[in-house]
Give the backbone structure.
Amino acid sequence: MATHRTLLLGSLILAFGCPPLLAAETTAQAMPEYMDMLAHAISVQTVQGKDQVPALAGYFADKLEAAGFAKADIETFPVGHTEALVVRYRGKGEGKPFIVHGHMDVVPANAEGWSDHAPFKLVKDGPYYYGRGVADMKDQTVALVETFMRLKREGFVPRRDIILALTGDEETDEFTAEAVADRYRAAEFALDADGWSGEYDANLKPVMFGVVAAEKGYADFLVTATSPGGHSSEPNPDNAIYKLSAAMQKIAAYPFPVKYNGITLASFKAMSAHMRGALAESLHRFAEHPGDAKAAAVISADPAYVGQIRTTCVATELAAGHARNALPEKATANVNCRIFPGVTVAAVQQQLQRAVADPAIKVSVQDPAPVLGPISYPVLPQVMTVVTQTVRQRFPGLEVIPVMIPASSDSRHFRNHGVPTYGVSPAFAKPGDVHAHGYNERILASELPASLDFWHALLPALAGAK
Amino acid sequence: MPFVRLLIAASIMLVAAWIPPAQAETTRQAMPETMAMLRHAIAAQTVEGKGQVPAFAQYLADKLESAGFSRSDIEIIPVEHTAALVVHYRGSDKSLKPILLSGHMDVVAANPKDWQRDPFKLVEGNGYLYGRGVADMKTNVIALVETFMRLKREHFVPKREMILVFSGDEETDMASTRELARRHHDAAFLLNADAGGGTYDAHYQPVVYDIQAAEKTYADFQLTVTSAGGHSSEPDAPKNAIYRLARALENIAAYQFPVQHDAITLASLKATGEHSSGPIAEAMRAFAANPDDAKAAATLSADPAYVGQIRTTCIATMLDGGHALNALPQRADANINCRIFPGTHVASVQAALVKVIDDPSVRITVRQPPPVESPASPLREDVVDAVTATIRERFAGVDVVPGMSAGASDSMYFRNAGVPSYGVDPTFSKPNDAFAHGLNEKLRASEVPAALDFWHSLLTRLTK
C-alpha cells in the first residue's frame, strides 16, 4: 500500500506539471561542461580597458537560461564599461536569502613573461592548469555557474533564495560590487568564493581551511616627486627619478608596526599545530605571546605571512619622464597598501610620508576612495557548521577556523551594507604557488572537481533542501 | 670694358625678366612678420605622436613661395609621421658646393598641466618670450625662413647656393635627419642654428660666443628589471623589480664618469673663464691651464651646465613599471640618457654602467636608433671669420671660440656623412635660463631681432 500510495503521489505531481524528479548528476558527469566553460572564460580577456566583461556575463546568462533559469531571474548591473551578473535561484521563500559572490574580471597579463603558455588560454601542464584567472578566480566563478545549472537540472528547489552575484571590476574599482551590495543588503549573509581558504603543505597535505571573516583594508597611494626638468645634456642632480628612487628604498625598508587581533591569534595557533619549522614555531610563539618581536621578525620575512601581522605597503607601478632626452619633471609610483583592521587610511598615509622623510615628495590617496570593511566575527554558527562539514567530506578531521586575509575583495562592500560576509574558496594551494596576479597563474587540476563537489554540497545544505 | 659688359648684361637681364628694384628691408620692418610666424609656430604642436610637422612644414613652404621662391625649389619629404623641409636658394656660381642651413621643426613634448602658462601659446613678459620651442628652436627656424624671404624680396642672389635642411624629428628618432644627410651630403659645410651660441652673464652682458665644432655622442640605455610578480598582498621587497631598479638608479646618481679634455674643450673653457668671474670662471681657467686640477674639475662637475664639458654624463630620464595597482611588478624599466665624450666608445660606457649598478639582475641594453659617433669638424677660417665679424656687429670685441656641444644635434649625421658642421645659434642666454625641454621654456625677447640681423648679415657675407 505504502508503495502504491507513493506511486500515486508521483503520478499526481507529474500530472500537475511539476518538474520530474531527476537523477542527481555526478561531478564526473559535470566536469566536461565545466571545463568547456572554464576554457571559454579564460579566453575572454576580462581585463580593465578591454570591456569584455559583458560578453562573458552574456555567455554565462545564456548557459544558465539553457539550464532552466527564467530570464527574469537573470539580471545585469551595468557600471561604465563593465557589469555584474546576478542570478536568483528561487526558493520557497522560507527565510532571508543568502548571497554567494565572485568576480568575472582578471588582472592584466603581459604575455612576454609567461613561460610557455599564452595567458589567455587554459593549458594543462603537469599537475597544473595555467591561465590568467584560473586561480583568481574564474575557476570558482565557473564552478558556481556550473553548480547552479546542475542543481537546476536536478530539480533542486531551495527553501530560501540563493543570490549568485558575479561582479565585473573586483580587481580595479569595485563599483559593481557596491551596486550589488547596495541592492541585496537584506541578505542574511554572503559567501565570497574569492577566498584564500584551503592551504596545503609542501607535500600537498591539507593544513587547514580558513573561513575568511576579516580582510585587510586596501588603499593605493601615489608617491610623486618633481624636479625642474630641462635638457638631459645638462644633468641637474635635482632629478625627480632619483628622488623617487630614494623614496622607494625608504618605503621598502619601513617597518610598519606589528598588529594582531582575536582572529589572527586563533588562526596562528591552529595553523602552527599543522606546520613544522621556524615559521611554525614563530606563529605558535606569536599566538602565545602576542607581538613577540623575534617571532614577528620571522613571520615578517615570509611574503605569504607578513600581511598577517602588519600593514604592508609595496610599490607596484612606476612612471616618469616625457622624453628620453629631457630631464624628468615628474616621477610617480603607486604604493599599494594592505591595512590592518583598525588602522585608518590617514594613519598609513602619515607613516608613508614619514618613511619617505622628504616633505617635497607628495604622498596622496588614489581614487577611488578606500573602503575599509568591518570584521564579520564571530562567524554565524550555521555557516561555520555547514562549511566545516563540507570541507571534511573531502578532508576528514581538517581544522576549519576563522581567518583574516591580507588581501581585500568585494566582501567589504557587503560587510559595509550590514551583511556578514565569509570567504570560502574550496581550492587548496601551497603558499605562493598560484601566482595570482603574476606570471604563470596556475591551479592544481585536483582542485577543479573538488570545487564542484564543494559547492554542490554546500549550497543546498545552507539553503535547505525541499 | 668688363664694367660696360657687365652693365649690358644687367640690362639684358632686366629686359628678359623684369624685376622691380627692391629696397633692403630693415630688421625692424621684418619683425611683425617674424613674430606672427613665430606665434603660429609655437601654436603648432609639433611633438612626437601628434603628426603636426607636415602641416607646419607646409605653412613655412607657403610663406617662402609667397616671398618668391619657386615651388620646384621647395620640397617637403615625408618621413613616417613627420617630414623634412628642403628649400634651395639657388646661387649664381654652380661650381661652388652649397652651404647647408640646418634646424628642426619638432619640439619636445610638454604637459600643459605642469606649466604655469599654456606651453603652446607664445607669451611675452618680463623681457622674455615663453612657449615650447621658443628656445629649442622655433625662433631660429622662423628667423632662417624670414631671412630667406627677406633676401629673396631684396633680390639678393648668392654666388654659392644655400639650402635650408629642416628636420622633423630631431628630438626623437632623427629619421628625417638621416634622410636629409643621405640626400644632401655633397656640401661645402653646414651651419646648424640649433647648436653653439652666446653666453650672457647675470646682467645680460655677453661673455663668449661658441661655434660648435664637435659634439658628444648621444646614447640611450635601457635598464630592465624583471621579477615574478604576484599578488600585492604578499610583498617580497628584496625581489621587487621597482625596488631593485630604484637601487640601480641611486648607484647611477652617485657615480661620476672620469674627467676628460681635448683641444676644443680647453680653448672653450679658457675663453669662457676669462670672460666671467666667480668660482666657476676660476675653475674653468684653472682647468684649462691644468686639466689634472681635481678641485677645478669638482667645481665644474657640480654645475649642470658645465659638467658635460669635462665628463661623459648619464642621467635617468624616464621610468616605466608595473601593470596593475594591486599586482607586484613583473617589470620595471628606466631610460638612461648618456652624452659621451668624443673618443669614448659606447660599449665602454655600457660596461661602466654595469659595474656601477653591480646587480646582474638589472639588464642594460643600448636603445635604438644606434648611437652615431661623429668626428670633430676642422675649423674653416672663412666660417670662423664670418661668424666672428657678424657676432661682433652686435657685441664688439666678444670672443668667438670653438666649442664642444654636450647635446646630440642634427649635425652628427652630417659630420658622420663627411660634411663639416658648425653650430652657430645667434641667440645668447644665461646658463640654465632657457629650460629647453623642461617647464616654462623661455628666450630673451631681444634675441629675435638679433637673430634676424645675424642671419641676414652672415648669409650675405658667406655667399656674396
In short: The longest helix of chain A spans residues 27-43. Residues 111 and 119 of chain A are 6 Å apart (CA to CA). The two ends of chain A are 25 Å apart (CA to CA). Chain A touches chain B through 70 residues (CB under 8 Å).
